[in-house]
Design brief:
Largest sheet: none
Number of strands: 0
Shape: flat
Number of helices: 3
Radius of gyration: 17 Å
Helix content: 55-70%
Distance between the termini: 27 Å
Number of domains: 2
């Protein structure tokens, strides 16, 4: 199967999973919705070629942002590999 077709199928699957998650969250089972969120995250990571180490680095940065900053420093500096690409 060509890569473009596979990506198209995964995007379609993600859309369906998002709808299922929204239904579960609102109607029946928030726990099942959270589990489905993990599957959605895994598929999004695969589509965007995000590695586990990159995800961990982003999570670590988010934890740092929640902590009080040193007033001398001022801002949290992002490592170059965490720059947002649109």
């Amino acid at each position: 199967m060509p890569v473009a077709d596979q990506e198209e199928r995964l995007l379609s699957l993600l859309e369906t999973l998002e709808e299922c998650r929204a239904f579960l969250q609102k109607k029946t089972s928030p726990e099942a919705a959270r589990l489905l969120s993990l599957a959605i995250l895994e598929l999004r990571m695969e589509l965007n070629k995000v590695t586990d180490s990159e995800l961990k680095a982003i999570c670590d940065l988010m934890v740092l942002e929640d902590q009080p900053q040193d007033p001398k420093d001022g801002a949290v500096r992002l490592p170059p590999y965490l720059k947002l690409v649109k």
